């Protein structure tokens, strides 16, 4: 027998899920993350889950990994020193950027403009010019190019990005510069814009190419280190990395295009949430992944996550396909504080992380966190992660009491309730970004809550959004790892077209997309993957417009009509003019692995057999008695009336008064207000 192993490394915990490829059976484990060397936490998790399954490490055939290495390199400013080669006259392309300033009125006064990832002193120009139709106007001056590359070598650049004007139409000059760089800058990784983003708009293309080079050395070191340690520790598995769009990429391909994995970690959670929600019959979803450091939210339609054309990390926005995930600095480790100036309670975005962690962890942390507030309110059991972490209730109370003292509140419970209310509102803001601000009513969706901390806050977020039912999957704390283990290999090919739809015959249009699909399919085939499905999308605009909309469609479908419907939905109008095809894309996907769904034994609706006792919790301003249930003992159809707490190895679920949780045959808990309980 062989096994697939999904691994998700978060800021606080590393989650591991093992899948038997023959039977589809699964085993789960959770262990503390090791920020100084993430591979240590990964190997600890592998040991733990292999012991659970009673197998040797050597039986693991594939390790499928969602990682935040690229993301953290951007957020922490710890990427490589990048050299940028541009066409003569375009040296300031990153400094000029786009004339957009975030924030409200007079935001330009207070907004500190981020420094480009490639410094101006490390940006060089080379004489060459290609027209927008691909015609060579001026040949590349190779002597000047060699001189420019030597300057970058003397500056000590660690990665090289090449982004020439109109290289999306003709990449010959970029490819030649890469050959010269191999001679002048041996050992330095080179990113070409014609490979990273073969699309029009020089600023976005240059920025994305530079971002690729910025994170590439760090990603390469991490992947190589993890691969070497897996081999040394007797895990002869093929390593694959999760892409931002929810697909898998071979380790080598991930190193070559790390900009496609900036949202690697969150994408796995969305994939897992879709798989689990489908088992209970729900396909229209808001996903809510609350971990120790941050919360990631996304919207899913028809069991398909919305894929955006931009990836945003911190102040950086690059053009790369990604699940449309929004991240909020709110997690179990988010620190509550009361600024001296305003005396108003704030929660996050600073986090206690895994080290030292919340005060309740007993690892030296003393700042009040969301986890400490949940402990004070009685929502959390005395141990977490299957006994790996023991909670210190007195330390949590002492930390939260500092907030009560600073605000003049009567008790630690009142301060803790305030912390929870604020962090819930912060997460509500993220959910509104992917729903209301995108033209969707959250009441039309179910809310899937996961992550170690998500189920504690899920019921409250259901009340705030009106999204019912709230779905709490089995083992919600390791759902991202489930997503990693149940996703498929994927690749994408794109090109700029810039033609009116009216000037393209059906055959011409189909030919463009079929050619792109063949290119992407070949790359997957080279990785030993058999292509199972192909999807198509295009960036369309009305002729004369400056911006386009991404539209997914099927070959043979009326592309103009699909665009009109999307434009109408977003802006409430269309125009009686022709459409222009700006960019075309084809995405190919391999087969999805087999995982056996959970089928619970049918019960009689009474969860008494799973009840382990009662506890006192503080909710809605008073102490009440709440029943405590062991989740593994629940049966299909059992109804848990709130207030109730459901405990399991990797997470804890809170059911509020006035609500009830029904155990679905697939193992998920479906929480609804009692008045609408079905």
UniProtKB/TrEMBL annotation:
GO terms assigned for molecular function: 5-oxoprolinase (ATP-hydrolyzing) activity
GO CC terms, sorted: cytosol
Acetophenone carboxylase-like C-terminal domain sequence ranges: 585-662
InterPro entries (UniProt xref): ACX-like_C (IPR049517), ATPase_NBD (IPR043129), Hydant_A_N (IPR008040), Hydantoinase_A (IPR002821), Oxoprolinase-like (IPR045079)
Hydantoinase/oxoprolinase N-terminal domain: residues covered: 4-184
A Pfam family the protein falls into: Hydant_A_N
Protein's GO biological process: glutathione metabolic process
Domain Hydantoinase A/oxoprolinase per the UniProt entry, residue ranges: 205-488
SUPFAM superfamilies recorded: Actin-like ATPase domain
Protein name as catalogued: 5-oxoprolinase
Annotated source species: Paractinoplanes rishiriensis
